[in-house]
Amino acid sequence: MQYPVEEFFHYLQIERGLSDNTLQAYKRDLSNYYQFVREQQQRTDWHQVTRHDIMQFLYQLNDQGKSSATIARMLSTLRLFHQFLIREYQLKDDPSLHIETPKANRKLPKVLSPNDVDKLLNIPAADKFSIRNKAMLETLYATGLRVTELISLTMNDLHLTMGFVRCFGKGSKERIVPLGDVARDALELYIQSARPELMKQKQTEAVFVNHHGNPISRQGFWKIIKAIAAEQGIEKELSPHTLRHSFATHLLENGADLRSVQEMLGHADISTTQIYTHVSKSRLKDIYKAHHPRA
Q1: Catalytic residue status for 241
Q2: Residues in Cβ contact with 169 at an 8 Å cutoff, skipping those fewer than 6 apart
Q3: What mean pLDDT value characterizes the chain?
Q4: Of 82, 134, 184, 241, catalytic
């Protein structure tokens, strides 16, 4: 049973082009499932697995307190795996068919107010590190890139004269995102003054580098943004994607159409982007309650 699992991971990596983070999530999900059907259901071959086995596995996840979103993601993984077995190993039946996906209670993403964004971005460009940090944050808010996309940018991805950046999102899908004047100016200052100092004779195409001259890591970026938020007196809890969420919400609040925001965010499905319309409505309700005399 192990060999088809390894082949499935190879298929995801090579043919689907999934990122390392996404691939690791699939591996965790499928390893749990594989262990369950082997040890608890006593299956020795994938053709023995039944719909009942899958339901028992999902019930176990529910008993463990897993969220509906986690269970829905797990079921999606199992469906993809069993379809792979049918296609590659000629299994006749898909036991994951006709299992209803639990409805996920989607949490609204946390966003910053425009004032808090100003606080976060208006850091003085005092040295090479603050110049770099300002360029990173301005770029993130101007483009809505994922943090992984931001730190993966290369010098060839920047087209500052034209006013856009190129990035590669989930599944290595390329997209072009406009870049505002403020972010462009911050990037030009960083590239001309701070980046050469940080590089220390090292050769890398990465746009953003750390004090060793190496590409900055996701963890490194996360430490930077938390430190800046604390220095600027921003009390709201941040996540690595707070500026991405704020980017999308502020665009929609100021009249941008949903399809354009979807394209800039790199969402495959517009339903993913629609969550930001709910954020906008939620904030409107808060404003109404705070200021209407009869609210």
Answers
A1: yes
A2: 146, 149, 175, 266
A3: 87
A4: 241
SS3 call for 25: helix
Catalytic residue, from 146, 184, 195, 245: name it. 146
Return the number of other C-beta atoms located less than 10 Å from residue 243's C-beta.
28
Locus of tokens 């483009």: 143
- Residue 47 a catalytic site member: no
Helix (H, G, I), strand (E, B) or coil at 8: helix
Q: What distance in Å separates the CA atoms of residue 276 and residue 274, rounded to the nearest whole number?
A: 5
Distance in angstroms between the alpha carbons of the first and the last residue of the chain: 61
- Annotated domain spans of the chain: 2-89, 114-291
Nearest alpha carbon to residue 190 among 131, 240, 112: 131
Q: What's the predicted TM-score (pTM) here?
A: 0.64
Known active-site residue 250: no
Q: What is the assigned CATH class of domain 2-89? A: mainly alpha
Rounded mean pLDDT, 160-184 = 90
Class of domain 114-291: mainly alpha
Q: What's the CA gap between 266 and 271, in Å, rounded? A: 12
Q: Do the two domains 2-89 and 114-291 of this chain adopt the same fold?
A: no
Q: Is the pLDDT of residue 220 over 90?
A: yes
- Torsions phi, psi for 174 (to 5 deg): -85, 140
